[in-house]
């Protein structure tokens, strides 16, 4: 279970650290005024400062919750968290597998795994859906639009 | 009357067989992404973008804008028949649309929605027809300082009128600007904000951000609440369609008021979502039958739908004449314009007359095509909603992955897209607005260039932003909008017993 407050704080810290990174990086480019006009780091530097300041405000608001925040103490219940993970984790594994398996094999495996393992569909129907997905991708992108999707290290090793 | 002549010329471009076919394709694809939860108009338009590179710009924009109309209509279909808004901007339609459909009047609800939507769109297009070229003419005299002031005004109006928490809007905007700055700086040629990753030199494409923020993010929000599509009958009774549309003029006050709200929110970048909620809230307060709202009132459907479409249409006005998109989808389209080699802004009205007037004429025709097609295809798309979500979800993930990859054949883009997905989910969950983030990514560079050019002109003095009446008005207006939430808060504290408006809580849930 994740409370609304924890989620607010985590997000504020996330945006804040992005802001800090922007500020630090833009200092390398130089901020302020030089002979060539405004230095290239100035604008990002200012946006970084705004992000940090805004995040600090949101952080403070998260620590001292307003009335509207208190009315929704729980942002994500454990059941919802499981559902989120059920969608996101396979998707992340799918993306991680693309360099090795290539887009076609990876997406077929992804569809098959998501449908067959939790028994949403029978194995045969999952396999058919998976094959159809890969085939549709191939026809639409490789053939119709002439966009080459990654074939993967495995296919390269096998000589495709 | 020049405008009318140009418009007639535009019709000769728009009403040709290939362009009508493109409209039909665009509208159908638009309804598809509008119906599917997790895919929306910004995604759909970004997905189609790579396919338009070989086209004439006018054909390309007709395809993309038709998709936008289709998506706006498609979102209403699922709102009414399934109580599931396919688009954030059609959430307000569920309040009265679904109860009416459940009462056994789905045709009446759909026809009322489409009729008033078409009216809203028509008002928006008429506004563009007569106002856009005038605005562009004024804008032709703009220098960099004026441009920066207009950008500033646009961003300030998000903060002042967007409806989300002001500081969260500011953070979202600033993050968008920082993301836009990643890569090679166009003025000095130096590399910025790559965080040590060499591949980031090419910058972050807005399509990658849109795929993640709106695609994966929305999917995560959708999967969290388990989906139960309890559909009502989706049969269309054609006689009832005409009867329902015939009854619309009786509600002309609501129609006109909602259209006005929609146009205002579309031109200032409030966006369709805020417009539909505001219009619904105002209608409930002023309608004689206001207390029956939520039980299937006709005006409860008319108000959000008219405002939604009026805002969606008029969001293209500032995009065409100033180069500032009024909504997230318009921002994506503007990115397309830049890729096709056009320069969004007042020069379009001078250099690219065929493009501008072809587009405006196509908006009249496209909306008619959209109404007809959406009525014809309601049963088909309603059947699509009965496909289990577990099958649709992985397919949408694959579409987003392929969409992000095909932007520049980069695997890093895919990984970033997934990261944007998490950000999109968190932002949606915590009511950070997403539209200003996308807007800032698309026009961040232009705003920065305008700022730096004006600084060069004034040799580093901020006085250039107060150098003449026009630019002073714009800047002061922007500052006023920025301070508006603060002032309202003080007024609220002063008049303590003010009741919290009931619609704000519902609205907060869906502001994107």
Describe the protein.
The complex is a heterodimer of chains A (160) and B (512). By secondary structure, chain A is mainly alpha-helical. Chain A has two domains: 1-75, no CATH class; 77-159, no CATH class. Chain A has six helices and four strands, in the order E-H-E-E-H-H-E-H-H-H. In chain A, strands 1-4 form a two-stranded antiparallel sheet. Chain A has a two-stranded antiparallel ribbon with strand order 2-3. The radius of gyration of chain A is 24 Å and the shape is flat. With 512 residues, chain B is mostly helical. Chain B has one domain. Chain B has a two-stranded antiparallel sheet. In chain B, a hairpin with a 6-residue loop joins strand 1 (183-184) and strand 2. In chain B, helix 1 crosses helix 17 and helix 4 (57-82) packs parallel to helix 17 (353-384). The longest helix of chain B is centred in the N-terminal third of the chain and has 35 residues, at 106-140. Chain B is globular. Residues 498-512 of chain B have low confidence and may be disordered. At the A-B interface, helix 1, strand 3, helix 2, helix 4 and helix 5 of A face helix 8, helix 9, helix 18, helix 19 and helix 20 of B.
Concise description?
With 160 residues, chain A is mainly alpha-helical. Helices cover 75% and strands 6% of the residues of chain A.
Any descriptors?
heterodimer, A: 160 residues, mainly alpha, 2 domains, two-stranded antiparallel sheet, 6 helices, 4 strands, 75% helix, flat, B: 512 residues, two-stranded antiparallel ribbon, 22 helices, 2 strands, globular, disordered C terminus, DUF1468 (chain A), transmembrane (chain A), Tripartite tricarboxylate transporter TctB family protein (chain A)
């Amino acid at each position: 279970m994740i409370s609304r407050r924890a989620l607010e704080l985590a997000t504020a810290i996330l945006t804040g650290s992005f802001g800090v990174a922007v500020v630090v990086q833009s200092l390398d480019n130089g901020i302020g005024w030089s002979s060539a006009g405004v230095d290239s780091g100035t604008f990002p530097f200012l946006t970084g400062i705004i992000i940090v300041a805004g995040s600090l405000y949101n952080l403070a608001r998260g620590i001292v919750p307003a009335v509207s925040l208190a009315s929704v103490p729980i942002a994500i219940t454990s059941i919802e968290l499981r559902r989120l993970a059920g969608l996101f984790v396979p998707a992340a594994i799918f993306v991680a597998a693309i360099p090795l398996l290539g887009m076609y094999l990876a997406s077929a495996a992804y569809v098959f795994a998501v449908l067959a393992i939790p028994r949403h569909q029978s194995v045969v129907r999952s396999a058919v859906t998976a094959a159809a997905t890969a085939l549709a991708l191939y026809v639409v992108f490789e053939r119709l639009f002439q966009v080459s999707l990654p074939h993967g290290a495995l296919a390269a090793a096998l000589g495709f | 009357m020049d405008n009318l002549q140009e418009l007639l010329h535009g019709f000769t471009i728009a009403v040709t067989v290939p362009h009508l076919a493109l409209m039909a394709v665009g509208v159908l694809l638009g309804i598809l992404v509008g119906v599917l939860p997790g895919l929306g108009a910004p995604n759909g338009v970004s997905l189609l973008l790579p396919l338009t590179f070989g086209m004439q710009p006018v054909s390309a924009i007709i395809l993309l804008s038709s998709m936008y109309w289709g998506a706006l209509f498609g979102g209403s279909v699922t709102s009414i028949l399934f109580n599931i808004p396919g688009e954030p901007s059609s959430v307000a339609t569920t309040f009265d649309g679904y109860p009416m459909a459940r009462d056994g009047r789905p045709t009446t609800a759909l026809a009322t929605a489409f009729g008033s939507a078409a009216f809203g769109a028509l008002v928006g297009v008429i506004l563009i027809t007569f106002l856009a070229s005038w605005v562009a003419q004024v804008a032709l005299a703009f220098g960099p300082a004026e441009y920066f002031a207009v950008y500033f005004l646009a961003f300030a109006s998000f903060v002042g009128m967007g409806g989300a928490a002001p500081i969260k809007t500011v953070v979202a905007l600033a993050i968008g600007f920082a993301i836009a700055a990643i890569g090679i700086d166009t003025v000095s040629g130096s590399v910025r904000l790559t965080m040590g990753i060499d591949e980031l030199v090419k910058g972050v494409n807005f399509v990658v951000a849109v795929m993640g923020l709106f695609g994966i993010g929305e999917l995560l929000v959708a999967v969290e609440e388990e989906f139960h599509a309890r559909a009502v009958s989706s049969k269309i009774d054609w006689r009832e369609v005409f009867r329902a549309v015939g009854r619309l003029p009786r509600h002309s006050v609501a129609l006109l008021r909602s259209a006005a709200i929609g146009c205002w929110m579309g031109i200032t970048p409030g966006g369709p979502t805020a417009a539909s909620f505001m219009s619904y809230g105002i209608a409930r307060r002023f309608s004689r039958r206001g207390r029956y709202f939520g039980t299937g009132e006709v005006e409860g459907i008319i108000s959000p739908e008219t405002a939604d479409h009026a805002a969606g249409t008029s969001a293209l006005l500032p995009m065409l004449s100033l180069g500032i998109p009024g909504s997230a989808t318009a921002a994506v389209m503007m990115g397309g314009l830049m890729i096709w080699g056009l320069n969004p802004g007042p020069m379009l009205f001078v250099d690219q007359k065929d493009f501008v007037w072809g587009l405006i004429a196509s908006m009249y025709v496209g909306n008619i095509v959209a109404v007809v097609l959406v009525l014809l295809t309601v049963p088909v798309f309603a059947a699509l909603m009965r496909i289990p979500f577990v099958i649709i979800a992985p397919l949408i993930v694959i579409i987003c992955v392929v969409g992000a990859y095909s932007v520049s054949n980069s695997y890093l883009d895919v990984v970033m897209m997934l990261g944007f997905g998490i950000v999109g989910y968190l932002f949606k969950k915590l009511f950070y607005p997403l539209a200003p983030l996308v807007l800032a990514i698309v026009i961040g560079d232009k705003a920065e260039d305008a700022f730096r050019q004006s600084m060069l002109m004034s040799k580093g003095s901020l006085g250039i932003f107060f150098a003449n009446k026009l630019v002073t008005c714009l800047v002061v207006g922007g500052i006023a909008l920025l301070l508006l939430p603060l002032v309202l808060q003080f007024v609220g504290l002063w008049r303590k017993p003010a009741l919290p408006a009931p619609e704000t809580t519902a609205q907060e849930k869906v502001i994107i």
